[in-house]
Amino acid sequence: MIPDANPAAACGARLRKSREARGWKQDELAAQIGYSGRHISAVETGLKPPTLRFSRSIDSVFGYTGTPESFERAWSELRNGTLLEGFPEYVGYEGRAVELRLYDIGVVPGLLQTPEYTGVLTNCVAQRGSISPEQAAERIAFLAERQAALERARPPMVMVVMDESCIRRWVGGDEVMDAQLERLVEFADRPNTMLQIAPFNIGERRPFTLPVNLLTLADRSVMCYAESQTQGHFDRELTSVVPMLTAYHQLQAVALSQAESVAMINQLRKGTP
């Protein structure tokens, strides 16, 4: 389990786990990358944040260079403040998943967003001063990369349940929102997708109060990423992931069917929010 107290603690936990998996002591790892055992200890306990040079050295020794597990990639994304903790690791697996199960509240899931919809949301965050214009551009580009990664020869099965608020919340005006709703209808028509709306009237039967993403890999292992406004958490422990998967299935059971969901979206396109 990766602690989500702060990025330095998360990196330290990953470093310790990778080192111990190889049966190395701190001094043994330190000797291979040109640092002291004390420095390794400080990074693992979160007392010292990793540098770019350190991250690259670790990647070289562990064979992580250019892989989803890369410490350099996580260092860059967390340093720039563009992603919540745990999300870089999640994205590394997302591009290799055979099944994706997504649930969102308030906004259309990122993988289904049009560039215009994404731009309105991200630029609004920048205007509030939460991120810089440069970080906003990085977020937009990063989402485009994630969407492109799913357009492969054998695309994954993508199941999406959206709270009704996702389509009722008007973002960017009529033109932007109409294009976004059209995108959802087109998404539902693909052979490898399923789109459902969780209507407001399911009330207390909605099992989630926060966005949840579940991944299934080719070996059938399941992973979960969930986030709040300020924190993200990536989980691969079966004891906590399986109940989330069960809750997702229960959500699908009370949500509208795909045909009913598309009909709701099309009806919204004909009228006003």
Automatic annotation (TrEMBL):
<dbReference type="InterPro" id="IPR010982">
    <property type="entry name" value="Lambda_DNA-bd_dom_sf"/>
</dbReference>
<feature type="domain" description="HTH cro/C1-type">
    <location>
        <begin position="15"/>
        <end position="71"/>
    </location>
</feature>
<dbReference type="InterPro" id="IPR001387">
    <property type="entry name" value="Cro/C1-type_HTH"/>
</dbReference>
<dbReference type="Pfam" id="PF19054">
    <property type="entry name" value="DUF5753"/>
</dbReference>
<dbReference type="Pfam" id="PF13560">
    <property type="entry name" value="HTH_31"/>
</dbReference>
<dbReference type="InterPro" id="IPR043917">
    <property type="entry name" value="DUF5753"/>
</dbReference>
<protein>
    <submittedName>
        <fullName>Helix-turn-helix transcriptional regulator</fullName>
    </submittedName>
</protein>
